[in-house]
Recover the amino acids of this structure.
């Protein structure tokens, strides 16, 4: 095919064949009728056909495309269908007279028509965000398809196609004339020139074979995995199949993923890794991959611009153009060298490194062994109470260390806490690609290797062979533009005599001055290949030790019992907290929306100081007499309703609930306990027995001991009776259960329940429910236990205790979690009479419950809550947060309801608002997506379809808004 033929093809609009025309063709040539819907296309005209029992795609093509080319597509489809391990492909459907390709004439124009099976499944293009698993699966499908075509041959493959990346340069030249924006045209032209220059050295080594050349989100079909993620398993539309570069096939796939990469081209690397595992590419192909991705992006934009100019009504092309511009922007947002290093690493190949064996000292007059290296990472002892956010904090710490040691330096490869930032959907650039040295002014600086001196704006670049040294803070001692030898003195550290100066040191294999000082953790592996460690110049201490998150997790799994689960399949290693934020070892800040344990917020200095002071004075058990246990017990009793004046101190909510059950047994002399379905009360033998949540224990409903009597869950949203006025309906089940106990002649010990349905996501009980149930329990001699472990202690904002919302007073209150703000502390508050009943079983003792330290913790927490007005904050911020969450219901059908009050809220996801089918799979995926966006969130409820929102009570309005904004991002972009 000649270039003139290609040029003519480039100017073709879609075939002028209407839906009515297509219907006539189907009936007359295939004997098929059905509902017809147009599908998008660049230059073909495609229709989906739905009959009573099958679906098809009718493809209508210009005669400018040779029949031989269409025959190659059909032959490839049949070839792939016979290959083991190949993706699904559509079958070719012959016409009524047995033809695979039919010539039809419409309004005096002849077209070629084919009918294919419609391959069921969803595409990927409609997703603004793709999880890593889906990206990898697309790469694997591309590889499986290419592997299945490796031995396919057909004369129709030798085509002169505008998408053939071997011809990207000439095709771009032909298309540029359609772009009227001069700046855009120049940018596209320069970008293509740069890409072609990088491709050319590798071109002779690039393998040729039959390739689909369009394995994109539009042209794959997917199934959903167990987590609800789209997994490509089929390929459609063989219109671009050619004999072309094998690596070009993967380049097309990678380019298609860039509009879903959130501006970061490295997000497509899982596709490269997956492809390499299935059908390995050679080193030359890997090095050519990213320039080919850029070339593909240029052709996409230029082609769409050209197509719009000749077919302005083509909405498919117009819509795609915006995505294609995004693809080009993302493809060119990182240097070619960086993407090459990233691709090689993703494919399991290490980039080449520069030898430092012959380098000379950078600081010949300084003993580098005497340099003190300063820890500025997440776990640094220099940081506390958010001081890392102060201006120039790193420099102040460095200068202080240098003043003491004579010379001090920061560490290359360290994830700097000072750069973490708060409330950011993207990971900040925390990874240091340089080292700063604070040392005496006037210290000589020498060239470690031979090179040319470039001096601009007080920034020196020593350009050597394959490596450059970047220095700031230098008084230059040689001429700019001169050549120096290894060991030559090139300057001295700037500054006044007898003062300290600062020298910034960075190595880079990139040309030019535009080298970042920091990069994001996700890009560190690639940038580290281009900006290697200066340890060869400054000593081994100049390089920070790398986090060992994976080996640490392996250690945990090897020695920490597996029943003690952790959040997330691949959990970030959290090593610092501050207020409502947690920080992983890479300096990523996460908004903590689940940590009801840390009620004050993380890292509160006042609490830490109180604990430290008390520990230095005394910590022992509560059998000894000391002031703190008496003061704290009095303080707790003062918070409870009148009559509840006696306190037991323990270490956890499980212990508190276990003790409450023992008190009920001891006081009544009976054993039978009522509890709610869907409830959770702890992991001790007794507290677990009254825990009925199947999310926490799948066997909960079949393994309860005989003394436990679960009653219907008064879930006002999805229970048997719905709405706030359903107490009477739910009370019937309570009465039936009590009647069964009485009919056996057995006594009743009591009833335990959360006053607000915390384990179901903060759902309010029906109006008057606890009053009605408590009355029935007490009438039979039982006691009423309010489990306030999760919902009480000011968390509801409008009430200090959850039972206040129901207008009742329990006989026993249990509390834990927040009352210690991270310290193991729990309590039971009851009447003196009930407490004294336990004497019949002997004395009660908890070794560390009520210890001096625990008591001081409890009092300090209450003091801080009062001084910082945290209950008021829970009310005001919680009301604002609930209002904003409720506003999402109208925009996102997946949200069924928003439950709770204050800072104990739940967002319930359902697939259908009528049937309330739980969106369990989607909820898990949303939590994973929120983690990517910088928010810690977990599901709750028996169906694990409710976001359990219970952050520290210091949550700010700004943080509340950030949470809602990220949730909307996840719901809008996909998860």
């Amino acid at each position: 095919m000649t270039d003139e033929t290609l040029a003519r093809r480039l100017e073709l609009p879609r075939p002028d064949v209407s839906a009515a025309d297509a219907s006539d063709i189907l009936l007359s040539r295939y004997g098929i009728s059905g509902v017809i819907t147009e599908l998008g296309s660049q230059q073909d005209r495609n229709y989906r056909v739905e009959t009573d029992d099958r679906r098809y795609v009718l493809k209508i093509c210009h005669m400018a495309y040779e029949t031989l080319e269409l025959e190659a597509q059909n032959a490839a489809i049949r070839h792939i269908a016979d290959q083991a391990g190949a993706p699904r492909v559509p079958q070719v459907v012959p016409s009524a007279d047995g033809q695979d390709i039919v010539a039809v004439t419409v309004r005096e124009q002849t077209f070629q028509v084919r009918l294919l099976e419609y391959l069921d499944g969803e595409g990927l293009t409609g997703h603004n965000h793709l999880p890593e698993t889906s990206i990898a699966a697309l790469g694997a499908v591309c590889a499986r398809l290419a592997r299945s075509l490796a031995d396919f041959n057909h004369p129709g493959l030798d085509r002169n196609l505008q998408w053939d990346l071997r011809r990207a340069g000439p095709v771009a030249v032909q298309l540029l004339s359609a772009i009227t924006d001069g700046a855009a045209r120049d940018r596209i032209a320069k970008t293509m020139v740069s890409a072609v220059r990088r491709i050319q050295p590798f071109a002779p080594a690039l393998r040729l074979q039959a390739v689909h050349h369009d394995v994109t989100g539009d042209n794959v079909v997917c199934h959903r995995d167990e987590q609800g993620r789209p997994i490509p398993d089929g390929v459609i539309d063989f219109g671009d199949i050619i004999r072309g570069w094998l690596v070009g096939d993967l380049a097309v796939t990678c380019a298609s993923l860039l509009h879903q990469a959130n501006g970061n081209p490295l997000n497509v690397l899982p596709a490269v890794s997956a492809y390499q595992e299935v059908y390995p590419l050679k080193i030359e192909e890997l090095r050519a991959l990213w320039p080919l991705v850029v070339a593909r992006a240029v052709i996409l934009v230029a082609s769409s611009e050209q197509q719009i100019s000749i077919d302005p009504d083509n909405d498919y092309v117009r819509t795609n153009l915006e995505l294609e511009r995004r693809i080009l922007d993302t493809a060119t947002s990182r240097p070619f060298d960086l993407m090459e290093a990233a691709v090689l690493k993703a494919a399991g190949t290490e980039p080449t490194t520069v030898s430092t064996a012959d380098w000379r000292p950078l600081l010949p007059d300084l003993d580098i062994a005497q340099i003190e290296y300063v820890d500025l990472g997440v776990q640094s002892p220099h940081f506390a109470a958010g001081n890392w956010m102060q201006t120039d904090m790193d420099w102040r710490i460095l200068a202080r260390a240098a003043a003491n040691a004579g010379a001090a330096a920061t560490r290359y490869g360290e994830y700097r806490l000072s750069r973490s930032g708060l409330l950011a959907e993207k990971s900040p650039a925390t990874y240091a690609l340089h080292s700063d040295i604070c040392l005496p002014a006037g210290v000589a600086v020498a060239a470690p290797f031979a090179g040319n001196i470039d001096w601009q704006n007080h920034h020196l670049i020593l350009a050597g062979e394959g490596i450059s040294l970047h220095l700031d803070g230098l008084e230059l001692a040689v001429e700019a533009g001169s050549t120096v030898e290894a060991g030559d003195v090139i300057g001295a550290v700037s500054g006044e005599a007898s003062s300290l100066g600062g020298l910034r040191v960075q190595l880079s294999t990139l040309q030019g001055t535009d080298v970042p000082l920091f990069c994001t953790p996700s890009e560190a592996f690639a940038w580290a290949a281009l900006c290697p460690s200066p340890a060869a110049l400054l000593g081994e201490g100049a390089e920070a030790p790398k986090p060992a998150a994976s080996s640490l997790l392996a250690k945990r799994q090897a020695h920490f019992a597996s029943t003690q689960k952790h959040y997330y399949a691949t959990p970030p290693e959290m090593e610092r907290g501050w207020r409502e934020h947690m920080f992983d070892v890479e300096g990523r800040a996460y908004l903590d929306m689940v940590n009801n344990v840390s009620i004050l917020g993380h890292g509160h200095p006042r609490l830490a100081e109180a604990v430290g002071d008390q520990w230095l004075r005394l910590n022992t058990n509560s059998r000894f007499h000391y002031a703190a246990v008496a003061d704290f017990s009095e303080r707790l009793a003062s918070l409870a309703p009148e009559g509840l004046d006696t306190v037991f101190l323990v270490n956890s909510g499980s212990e508190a609930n276990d003790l409450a059950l023992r008190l009920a047994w001891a006081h009544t002399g009976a054993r039978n306990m009522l509890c709610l379905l869907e409830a959770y009360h702890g992991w001790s033998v007794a507290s677990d027995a009254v825990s009925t949540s199947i999310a926490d224990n799948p066997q909960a409903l079949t393994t309860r001991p005989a003394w436990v009597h679960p009653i219907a869950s008064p879930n006002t949203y999805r229970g048997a009776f719905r709405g706030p006025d359903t107490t009477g309906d739910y009370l019937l089940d309570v009465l039936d259960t009590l009647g069964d106990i009485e009919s056996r002649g057995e006594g009743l010990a009591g009833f335990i329940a959360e006053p607000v349905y915390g384990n179901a996501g903060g759902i309010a009980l029906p109006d008057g429910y606890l009053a009605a149930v408590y009355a029935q329990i007490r009438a039979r001699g039982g006691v009423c236990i309010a489990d306030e472990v999760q919902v009480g202690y000011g968390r509801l904002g409008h009430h200090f205790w959850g039972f206040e919302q129901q207008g009742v007073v329990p006989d026993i209150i249990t509390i834990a979690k927040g009352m210690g703000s991270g310290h193991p502390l729990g309590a039971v508050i009851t009447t003196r009479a009930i407490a004294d009943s336990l004497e019949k079983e002997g004395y009660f003792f908890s070794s560390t419950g009520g210890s001096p330290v625990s008591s001081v913790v409890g009092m300090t927490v209450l003091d801080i809550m009062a001084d910082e007005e945290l209950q008021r904050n829970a009310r005001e911020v919680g009301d604002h947060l609930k209002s904003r969450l409720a506003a999402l219901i109208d925009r996102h059908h997946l949200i069924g309801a928003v439950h709770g009050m204050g800072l104990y809220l739940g967002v319930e996801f359902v697939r259908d608002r009528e049937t309330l089918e739980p969106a369990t799979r989607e909820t898990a995926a949303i939590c994973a997506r929120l983690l990517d966006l910088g928010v810690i969130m977990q599901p709750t409820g028996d169906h694990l379809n409710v976001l359990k929102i219970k952050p520290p009570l210091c949550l700010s309005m700004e943080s509340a808004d950030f949470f809602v904004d990220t949730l909307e991002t996840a719901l809008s972009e996909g998860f």
Observations:
- The chain has 26 helices and 40 strands.
